[in-house]
Amino acid sequence: MPGALPLNELAGWYRASARDLPWRRPEFDAWGTLVSEIMLQQTQAARVAVEIDRWLTRWPTPADLADAPTHEVLRQWGTLGYPRRALRLQDTARAIVERHGREVPRDVDALLALPGVGDYTARAVAVFHYGDRHPVVDTNVRRVIARAVHGQGEAGPAKRRDLADVEALLPAEPAEASVISIALMELGALVCTARAPRCEVCPIAAACAWRAAGYPAYEGKRAPRQSRFAGSDRQARGTVLRALRGVDVPLTEAELAPLWPEDEQRERAIGSLAADGLVVREGGSVRLPH
DNA sequence: GTCCCGTCTC
DNA sequence: GAGACTGGAC
């Protein structure tokens, strides 16, 4: 087992170099933290940063979002991507109102039970807002640990085991553990990046097992190649939903047809959007849910 | 064109 | 464990 990470160097680097992001402001409450973490699941921080304040101004509490018309929630979600997250966020707001007395739960298992909240998001809220001690493991953290601790260039597919691995290297004190978790994420986002790591400015380069081994090429399993977006069902779904966000009336199949001329794929896209609850078919028309 | 990268479903 | 799911950056 390689030596321990220099945690003091890492924490010091974070304090000096962290980006000034809205959700790191001290006045961000538990709800704001949860909303921002859901948005950050699939979307770059810079894009979330320009949307989060507008969202929280409109729906400052779970009760406000629970009562909102779903079509307005989808419109406000805009082009953040993966709009099923917006539906699940509203479902989560309703669950918080109904099951948790309008307060975002602190307990990790209660958070995990909320729709759209998985291993990363549940612990991010418990750690970054409530200050509890848990491993917060996203892809950045897994890559940093893979390199610095295990001497591997890449992390390979996510495993449950990763949580225990990270937990083992966190300081015992919850506040210190929280800083290390956020610092590992920030290091992976800014310095220990996937494609062009900037080892010359890395605060833990001297202890990095991958660097010490001479940057061996990664031999393990890789995530499968992502299929093409152009011409995909994903693109067709996005095209239909974008059109519906832009109007406040249902669109007929005839109005949608020119936007995605291939009939079979357009129908499949509308059908899968309806199955997800993102659109409603009514007669020969398609609309956003009320 | 390639990469990004958490949750859910199967 | 594998694949679906968006839109934008590079």
UniProtKB/TrEMBL annotation:
<dbReference type="InterPro" id="IPR003651">
    <property type="entry name" value="Endonuclease3_FeS-loop_motif"/>
</dbReference>
<keyword id="KW-0326">Glycosidase</keyword>
<dbReference type="InterPro" id="IPR011257">
    <property type="entry name" value="DNA_glycosylase"/>
</dbReference>
<dbReference type="GO" id="GO:0032357">
    <property type="term" value="F:oxidized purine DNA binding"/>
</dbReference>
<keyword id="KW-0479">Metal-binding</keyword>
<feature type="domain" description="HhH-GPD">
    <location>
        <begin position="39"/>
        <end position="190"/>
    </location>
</feature>
<dbReference type="Pfam" id="PF00633">
    <property type="entry name" value="HHH"/>
</dbReference>
<dbReference type="GO" id="GO:0046872">
    <property type="term" value="F:metal ion binding"/>
</dbReference>
<dbReference type="GO" id="GO:0034039">
    <property type="term" value="F:8-oxo-7,8-dihydroguanine DNA N-glycosylase activity"/>
</dbReference>
<dbReference type="GO" id="GO:0000701">
    <property type="term" value="F:purine-specific mismatch base pair DNA N-glycosylase activity"/>
</dbReference>
<dbReference type="GO" id="GO:0051539">
    <property type="term" value="F:4 iron, 4 sulfur cluster binding"/>
</dbReference>
<dbReference type="GO" id="GO:0006284">
    <property type="term" value="P:base-excision repair"/>
</dbReference>
<dbReference type="Pfam" id="PF10576">
    <property type="entry name" value="EndIII_4Fe-2S"/>
</dbReference>
<keyword id="KW-0234">DNA repair</keyword>
<keyword id="KW-0378">Hydrolase</keyword>
<keyword id="KW-0227">DNA damage</keyword>
<dbReference type="GO" id="GO:0006298">
    <property type="term" value="P:mismatch repair"/>
</dbReference>
<dbReference type="GO" id="GO:0035485">
    <property type="term" value="F:adenine/guanine mispair binding"/>
</dbReference>
<dbReference type="Pfam" id="PF00730">
    <property type="entry name" value="HhH-GPD"/>
</dbReference>
<dbReference type="InterPro" id="IPR000445">
    <property type="entry name" value="HhH_motif"/>
</dbReference>
<keyword id="KW-0411">Iron-sulfur</keyword>
<protein>
    <recommendedName>
        <fullName>Adenine DNA glycosylase</fullName>
        <ecNumber>3.2.2.31</ecNumber>
    </recommendedName>
</protein>
<dbReference type="InterPro" id="IPR003265">
    <property type="entry name" value="HhH-GPD_domain"/>
</dbReference>
<dbReference type="InterPro" id="IPR023170">
    <property type="entry name" value="HhH_base_excis_C"/>
</dbReference>
<keyword id="KW-0408">Iron</keyword>
<dbReference type="InterPro" id="IPR044298">
    <property type="entry name" value="MIG/MutY"/>
</dbReference>
<comment type="similarity">
    <text>Belongs to the Nth/MutY family.</text>
</comment>
